[in-house]
Write a structure and sequence with these properties.
89 residues, elongated
């Protein structure tokens, strides 16, 4: 397997006991080792370049949608009027 890239390792020292115990409990709840749970938490919190790009594209699309105005010649009806009309049915 010559093309396999070795993944970097991460070692964390001086973890407060209370935090480590919380990680152990979370790992147990997810049927993970503590190391696998830490990696899972990091994946949830730290976005990769690809994830950041995906988020930026999503925000651009959202801004485009927000900037579009639907042309209408009709007056805007208040929520109060709509509720009264609905109750009258």
């Amino acid at each position: 397997m010559p093309n396999e890239e070795k993944m970097p390792s991460l070692r964390i020292e001086n973890v407060p006991k209370e935090l480590y115990e919380a990680l152990q409990a979370r790992a147990k709840a997810h049927n993970h080792s503590v190391g696998a749970e830490v990696l899972s938490v990091i994946r949830e919190i730290v976005p990769t370049k690809k994830e950041l790009k995906t988020r930026q594209n999503f925000l651009r699309q959202l801004e485009k949608m927000r900037s579009r105005r639907i042309p209408s010649n009709k007056p805007v009806v208040s929520a109060e009027v709509m509720l009264r009309e609905d109750r009258a049915r």
